[in-house]
Amino acid sequence: MSLDGFITAGNQSQEEPLGEGGQQLHAWMEDERGQQILEEASGDLGAVIAGRETYDDSVPWWGSDGPTGPARCPVFVVTHEAPSDVPEDGVYTFITDGIESALEQAKAAAGDQTVSVMGGASIGQQYIAAGLVDEIGIHLVPVLFGSGTRLFENLGDEHIQLEIIDVTESASANHIRFRVSLK
């Protein structure tokens, strides 16, 4: 996320789903500490939930393996309608009956491992607003986009209290984990 709260830059397109210059939000994954952070996070990952827009924008890069690559964690895509063209032997399940159903199915698939809502402002906002998130992880990149897609909009009028769990620096981002406090 950019310092001003955007998870995509402005002027998104098919060629640049993260917007013009938005790819720099992922540059931290290329440094040594960023790689360690990714490995630590994926070590306990059992399933992923994504929104349809994230799926549509990312499947050309993810392919049939999904965002976890060779680990092939199941991906539950929340959508109004499943796409007609899906990668053969893919890890994707399309959920058309709401975020609660997607979470239930992802938890069942993950067993005692972590379920991650990965990417997509709309789907993340829906889970946060519904009180279905235990923890929020942010990779804060030192850039100001000024426009794009904000992660923390449309959350309602209630304050959501967070507790800092961990802050880790890498060469190109600060990685912050928050526990969502119960109301």
UniProtKB/TrEMBL annotation:
Keywords (alphabetical) are:
Plasmid
One MF term in the entry's GO annotations: 5-amino-6-(5-phosphoribosylamino)uracil reductase activity
Which SUPFAM superfamilies does the protein's record reference?
Answer: Dihydrofolate reductase-like
Q: Which domain of life is it from?
A: Archaea
- Keyword set includes Protease: no
Listed PANTHER family: BIFUNCTIONAL DEAMINASE-REDUCTASE DOMAIN PROTEIN (PTHR38011:SF12), DIHYDROFOLATE REDUCTASE FAMILY PROTEIN (AFU_ORTHOLOGUE AFUA_8G06820) (PTHR38011)
Kindly provide the name given to this protein in its UniProt entry. Deaminase
* Lineage, top ranks: Archaea, Methanobacteriati, Methanobacteriota, Stenosarchaea group, Halobacteria
